[in-house]
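In the previous lecture we treated proteins in isolation. Real proteins rarely work alone, and many bind small molecules. This record shows how such a complex is specified: first the sequence, then the SMILES for zinc ion.
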Amino acid sequence: MEGVAKLRPGARQVGLLNAPEPTATPGHVIIEVTAAGLCGTDVHIYHDEYPSRPPVILGHEVAGRIVDVGADVRHCATGDAVTSEPYFFLCGLCPYCRAGMPNLCQRRRSIGSGVHGAFARYVRVPESSIHRLPDGVDEWGGALTEPLACCVHALENTRVEPGDVAVVTGPGPIGLLMMQVVKAAGAQVVVIGTETDEERLALAKTLGADHVLAVGKDDLQTSLAERTDGLGADVVFECSGAGPAAQTALDLVRRKGRYVQVGLFGKPVLWDLEQVCYKEVEVHGSFATVSSSWRKALALLRSGIVQTGPLISHRIELAAWQQAFDLFERREGVKIVFTPA
Ligand SMILES: [Zn+2]
Ligand SMILES: [Zn+2]
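The predicted 3D structure, ligand included, written as tokens:
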């Protein structure tokens, strides 16, 4: 089978790799991939800004059908419509594994970076990573369970209270999911983009954002001040992974507020750390997911409180992978998914 892979170390070393079809080893299942989301992490790997073990097929946001199960697989069967956590190998012994934090295991290997991922017709994952898709959630929207779970985890790492005014910077797929999760937690949400984000900001409104603002067009400080008695946002979620947005988010958070970094930059950025002192800001990082993030993400999908399907703007065949990466970098549309099966 052919997969879109990081072929060798270095920037732009991505292309089609001919790999043998995976077989179902004990404790593992084979998913025939219906939909696999292209994520910022894949693009960071493309630019050699995120660790990977080439040659390795990319892709960690997946939904599809189980077509084979290995020995000792008890909880899933051929034909199940599923999604998967990205975790392929965890040591199980380190303090993080023992504490239920697989995202922080130093020996972790995930599909799409450490082992072959979902940008191919078939992907092998351990049964322990599998989740059946809820009724009413198709394999398209289901492929976005992983980024949704990442947003749920960002909320797990901070707190949002009813009546809070939250800011989400970056109306890409993560920002649009984060906005919905934060709304579900009871806050009013202001989504901030740039002047080129017009379509994405319109989608944010459709999906429930209370207000949208564009850098360079709107006066962010004044707008936030008007909505918060001059204090600023209670909590900010930086979802763009762009340095200037990180600074904007820090400028907008109130004294004693919370700043959560969700987007990945791929490089160091300038950030006025002194404000963290003056304003006594609580700063939280958030990386990937833990088990509870998946349980809540699937509940949000099942109930329809969060919608992932409307984010999908492009469905692209694996062979046209370059077009997909180019669209991503030009920030056209919102979510690009590959259609391997
Ligand atoms: Zn992702
Ligand atoms: Zn571990």
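Summary for your notes: The chain has two domains: 2-149+289-338, 158-285. The two ends are 11 Å apart (CA to CA).
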